[in-house]
Write a structure and sequence with these properties.
alpha/beta; Rossmann fold; 3 domains; 4-stranded parallel beta sheet; 10 strands; 12% strand; disordered N terminus
Length: 492
């Protein structure tokens, strides 16, 4: 792939720069983000406490509300939740939950120091409103920012420096996704290679390091300043390393420009990375994926306990769905299908039947109409899907019987999509890494578009999950699954 969408590459006239070198990203980000976050946090912390104290007849309602507000805002400020570079950047709810835990601890200390006599449990619901509203505000601002970035607004303007092929890879990686704040304005290639990504060539650095010197500094800084870039992304390589790279960093920092190195790793979670220095060398340590240990044990317990509880609570709904399937078309209520699980072990997966009884026999004649690349078969208007089945797929309720697979330990609540045997048989070495973890009822593939994703995109998401999963990440995917189910995008 050597073609990049122009919406994520900018060139042209020089835009205005901010005096502090922060660039356009902060100036472009909507001003209401900060006002909304502060207002929501202040109201969410103060008003519920004020109302609760008034209703329960507790003393000092105004000081109590003021203290609660100050405590919540103080924690959020100390953790830089209102910083310009943080607002709207993430929809991950885990930081809010950590803030809430610290908030409860701080209130407990204040409660003990002041000798407050009211029962703490009576105000617990009141102090639980603030994190809920903060999460809602976070989702709203993130959604607005993501929409802005799809139009190349509220972004950092970036210049990439590196050998042509490596620079092209970085440009294409950035252009392929719109959730990040970086837009490439141009490339400064090193050496004689040909750029094929479509990014503007801003002038070349010589291949011979001994002839570089001031020329590197002048060319790169002039290119960045001409385009109003906020950041210079440097891709180290054979022609750009060691002392040459060091001197380039000096020049960029002296010019007030931000610099970042691209180490060549992709889809490695930051928590797995650690930097150290040995003998003057900067080392980047990459921790291995979690395949055993306490986290995996906790995940197993949460999976099975959560699935068992869900089966109990949803049993009336499952009964109603089973009746609907039975009345809609001839055939069994449940569809059993062999899938491939962790380590390549086959298992029988259960779903509510959404197709006619002879669906498997009719697959051969429909394969010519496959709308997916790779080994996966999908049709947006598959004639084998029943009336009730189409609704079940749209709402993902056909997946509920898989809770039994989770209880049995064959699946997880969150994980890669479980493949069919003939799909798994076509996997290459890279794709087979999806089978390193248990398949899941939901996963990154479901909250990112499901059947609308290409095969390569689905594989990339599953590999990212298999290498970087964590308990907190699973909880975030489960929370995002509810939105994906309501949205229904890619479910057919």
């Amino acid at each position: 792939m050597r073609s990049v969408g122009v919406s994520r590459i900018e060139a042209g006239t020089k835009p205005p720069r901010l005096a502090n070198g922060a660039g356009l990203a902060r100036a472009d980000k909507a001003r209401w983000y900060l006002a909304a976050a502060l207002a929501v946090d202040a109201v969410g912390a103060g008003v519920p406490v004020l109302v609760t104290c008034g209703v329960l007849g507790q003393p000092h309602p105004v000081p109590a509300a003021t203290t609660a507000t100050a405590a919540w805002l103080g924690i959020r400020v100390s953790r830089r939740r209102y910083a310009a570079e943080e607002l709207g950047e993430s929809r991950d709810v885990r930081p809010v939950l950590r803030d809430w835990a610290a908030y409860l601890g701080l209130l407990a200390v204040i409660y003990a120091l002041t000798g407050e006599r009211s029962a703490p449990l009576t105000t617990l619901p009141a102090v639980s409103v603030a994190p809920v509203l903060a999460m809602i505000c976070q989702q709203v601002t993130h959604g607005h920012l993501a929409a802005s970035r799809r139009e190349a607004q509220s972004v950092h303007r970036v210049v990439v420096v590196g050998e042509a092929s490596a620079a092209d890879d970085v440009v294409e990686q950035l252009a392929a996704r719109t959730s990040h704040p970086y837009v490439v304005t141009g490339v400064v290639p090193v050496g004689d290679g040909t750029l094929t990504s479509g990014a503007p060539d801003l002038g070349r650095l010589l291949a011979e390091p001994s002839m570089a010197g001031d020329r590197d500094r002048r060319l790169v800084t002039a290119a960045a300043e001409q385009l109003g870039a906020d950041l210079v992304l440097v891709v180290p390589g054979r022609l750009l390393r060691g002392e040459r790279l060091r001197r380039l960093s000096w020049a960029l920092h002296d010019a007030g420009l931000q610099m970042a190195l691209v180490p060549g790793l992709t889809d490695v979670a930051p928590r797995r990375l650690q930097t150290t220095m040995v003998a003057g060398l900067s080392l980047l340590h990459v921790a291995p994926p979690t395949r055993r240990g306490p986290q995996l044990a906790v995940k197993t317990v949460l999976d099975r306990a959560g699935a068992a509880l869900a089966l109990l609570l949803l049993s009336p709904l499952c009964g109603a769905l089973a009746l609907a399937v039975r009345l809609d078309s001839h055939g069994p209520v449940l569809h059993r299908q062999t899938r491939i699980g962790q380590g390549g072990a086959p298992f029988t997966m259960w779903k509510f039947r959404t197709m006619v009884a002879d669906a498997e026999e009719r697959l051969t004649e429909l394969k010519i109409a496959n709308e997916k690349d790779g080994p996966l078969f999908k049709m947006r208007r598959d004639p084998r899907v029943t009336r009730v089945g189409r609704w079940l797929r749209r709402t993902s309720l056909d997946e509920l019987p898989q809770l039994v697979n989770v209880v049995r330990g064959e699946m997880s609540l969150v994980g890669p999509r479980p493949p069919l045997p003939d799909e798994a048989a076509q996997y290459d070495e890279v794709e087979a890494r999806r089978l390193m973890v248990k398949p899941g009822m939901t996963g990154l593939w479901q909250v990112s578009g499901r059947s609308d994703l290409s095969w390569d995109e689905s594989v990339a998401l599953d590999l990212r999950y298999a290498d970087n999963w964590s308990i907190g990440g699973d909880l975030d995917v489960i929370a995002r699954t509810f939105r994906a189910v309501v949205d229904g995008r890619g479910a057919y």
